[in-house]
Amino acid sequence: MLLALLVLLPVLRLLWEAGDATVLARVLDSPATWRTATNSIAIAAGATLAAAMIGGPFALLVGLTDLRARTAMTFALILPLMIPPQIVAMAWTHLAGSGSPILKPLGLAPPVGTANPVQSAAGMVLVMGIEHAPLVFLALRAALRAIPGDVLEAARASGAGPWRAVRGVVLPLCLPGLVAGLAMAFVAALGNFGVPALLGIPAGIPMLPTLIYRRLAGFGPSALPEVAVLAALIGIVACLGIATQTILQAHIASRLPGGARPLAPLPLGRARMAVEGIAWGVLALMVAAPLMALLATSLVSVYGLPIGFGTLTLAHYREVLALDQVGRAFANSVLLSGSAAGLLALLAVPLAHAMALGGGAGRIARAVGVLVELPHAVPGVVLGIGCILLFLKPLPGLGVSLYGTLWIILAAYLVRFLPLALRPVQAACAALDPTVEEAARALGAGPLRRLVTVVAPLVAPAAAAGGLLVFLTAFNELTVSILLWSQGRETLGVVVYALEEGGSPTLGAALGVIAILVVLAAMLAAGALGRRLPPGVVPWRG
Amino acid sequence: MPDSFHLDAVPIRLERCGKTFAGGARALEPLDLTIRGGETIVFLGPSGCGKTTTLRIIAGLESPDPGGRVLFGEEDVTALPIERRNVGMVFQSYALFPNMTVAENVAYGLKVRKLPRPERARRVEEMLDLMHLGEFAGRRIDQLSGGQRQRVALARALVVRPRVLLLDEPLTALDAKLRDSLRLEIDRLLRGLGITAVYVTHDQGEAMALGDRIVVMAKGRVAQVGTPREIYYQPADGFVADFIGTMNRLGGLARGGMLSIGVASLPWSGPDGAVELLVRPEDLALASEADGHFGGTVAAAVFLGDRTRLVVEPADGPALTVDTLGRSELGRGDRVWLRVDPARVLAVP
């Protein structure tokens, strides 16, 4: 219970601040507030639609058909979600800009001097749509998995052809999953900072997270009361989305029996080659092309020159790695995400174990498990502003303020990423045979000894996977740290953003590529662990 | 079996132990039972009868409803959690620690008891030898067969010299052949150790073979407590009679010291009126028309090797199951005559 209170403190503190009537009235009266809120909601809705149009078809293909290399396809589709938004947005500006290393040789790049086409509302819709398509994909695929195979077979036995059976039976059954995925994509788009910062600010389109960032960066802590109201506004809209998603997911879980045989893949027949070609083609355009543009930008000697043997260089990598703030940021990000991952993996084991217990203790632990989801579900700015408000004044009893130190970022990470570490361990604990622990009890082992000698070793792979997911997410995180960083306490995400903003596109690209490589390495490690875990713990593994 | 393995025989007493689960479901009606020191008692019944709940109350994994008491010898252990009851427990799923080797599994309870390392090693080795597991000491659990796993589970439960051994369907997960051999091994072990043992099963064969006494349970109540022979030959009620073995039901009419079944009359000591009679298949015999009690047609003949089980349909009344010699050549449609041994007929009140 104490834990739930601790993780909810920043959000509660934010709501309290936003309740100030005079500030509330001033902010709500301002036309800028409403213009920005309307922008945010409209663009988030557009991005959600785009995510559905990408994630939906892929989920159906991977979940229902006999397409080959489905794990690889899933991995490729999920990649944009794993790469931080500011790097994806940066990659797209390099792909679509006038100096595009890919479009220019094809003669397709926009002329020099014109605005970058992705730095627009439509560009934000497209890039966030691609980023959040995996959320729709994963939710829909989970819903498809929950449909027992005999339902489809029964429909076919009644004389429906395979595609008619899918349309008539499978699609209606997985509709709640699709809507839950849409709600998740909407909340993610609403809270996204990296894409609006790199694509919206240059185009003069303010969104709520970027408005909050600019106010805070421009006016410092004196702007806090105002931005608290704005953050609360995002929080409230996001909560509507979260509620939709929670209700629908409970609905899915309750309506279908678990543990049944999964759907048998439908043969695509001769169309398989063509469908595979189209699917990989779309992935190449959506995922590979921008990443190639980023890579090319980072390797070309002078920004805007075509890439070739004469212009290929690693100089930007050498230069960027030699920068003081880059070294610091690497150290900070490794330290922050590493300690968050380690602490949360350790914390997740007893908490998840308590959640699997029966009786009163288990009920309390499960309630805590629901509450700790909130700081993860709400947009990062909500938590960021909440943390500033909470830690700006010196801590009671200690007399020091965490504001302006690394500790405030660590505190925010611990609160925000606890669910990422908890979910896999929770799944593993629920799958444990309860008699194993009863056997240890019969042999005289007390609760702590059982936790350490029996439970922890059995759920260790899941805790490690959870820790890796935390590391992966926190290592490049920008949304929270952009609000909480201070001179000398930069995170990697902040430095990538600052380089790109500060007019060093090649250096930004080089650092972005390095960050992606770290992400890929962590993903591969998690994938290797995933072989020993229950299905669903590592997102792209079946 | 070496003397060091002989364990104290602690009697167990259950006093008014009932169990009502949250939500009001009554899993167990208040139960009084004394288990003698060194006795093997088997709880037998269909699933949901309360047998596992009773075992878990003895173990300390569940507490009885208020008013119930569990006594080990003279000690009231009702308030003690399982960790402090010093019981050995064996589960259907083996419940071995998959992160430890065979020897580490067996040593676990001794480590908890802070035994010095040499003493620990000696006792683990002794126990592994007793269970014929010596060569597997360093193996991982997933390298063992089901039977070997259950022997490790037994070794782990016994090495701490528990006051009582509790076995929850320990053979159910094994295939038929292994089940028989491990059952013999458990029997040998329980007799040799002299430990008080509580064994839960839904398999009457296991119950008959292992139990000094059997507690037959149904719907949260004790239907009968008795030796295997008592349970088999003198079932307390229709449920026990039907649940244990195969039982035929015959309708008869008693009048003036005689009982008429079919065409026959037998001497009878009970009161007058309609009587329901119970007869085991082996207590019905084929007879000639002259000394048969009633006749019927063979509806099915099932060859079981050592015997042939006939289902005979009399002219009126329910079908009867009769065991005959394996070499019997009777088949479907044959007319037969049956004789009842009056001394072995049971009347159910």
UniProtKB/TrEMBL annotation, chain A:
Residue ranges annotated for the ABC transmembrane type-1 domain, each copy included: 37-246, 330-526
Annotated InterPro entries: MetI-like, MetI-like_sf
Transmembrane feature ranges: 41-62, 74-95, 121-144, 165-190, 227-248, 278-309, 329-352, 364-392, 398-415, 451-475, 507-529
CDD domains per the UniProt record, alphabetical: TM_PBP2
Main location per the UniProt record: membrane
UniProt subcellular location: Cell inner membrane; Cell membrane
Record keywords, A-Z: Cell inner membrane, Cell membrane, Membrane, Transmembrane, Transmembrane helix, Transport
Entry GO terms, CC: plasma membrane
Biological processes per GO annotation: transmembrane transport
Top-level taxon of origin: Bacteria
Family membership noted in the UniProt record: Belongs to the binding-protein-dependent transport system permease family.
PANTHER family, sorted: FE(3+)-TRANSPORT SYSTEM PERMEASE PROTEIN FBPB 2 (PTHR43357:SF3), INNER MEMBRANE ABC TRANSPORTER PERMEASE PROTEIN YDCV (PTHR43357)
Name recorded for this polypeptide: Iron(III) transport system permease protein
Organism per entry: Azospirillum oryzae
Automatic annotation (TrEMBL), chain B:
Entry-linked Pfam families: ABC_tran, TOBE_2
GO molecular function: ABC-type transporter activity; ATP binding; ATP hydrolysis activity
Keyword Zinc-finger among UniProt keywords: no
Residue stretches making up the ABC transporter domain: 12-244
SMART domains: AAA
InterPro entries attached to this UniProt entry: AAA+_ATPase (IPR003593), ABC_SmlMolc_Importer (IPR050093), ABC_transporter-like_ATP-bd (IPR003439), ABC_transporter-like_CS (IPR017871), Mo/tungstate-bd_C_term_dom (IPR008995), P-loop_NTPase (IPR027417), Transp-assoc_OB_typ2 (IPR013611)
Any one Gene Ontology cellular component term annotated for this protein: ATP-binding cassette (ABC) transporter complex
Keyword annotations of the record: ATP-binding, Nucleotide-binding, Transport
Statement: the UniProt record of this protein carries the keyword Calcium: no
Family: Belongs to the ABC transporter superfamily.
Name of this chain's protein: Putative spermidine/putrescine transport system ATP-binding protein
Species of the source: Azospirillum oryzae
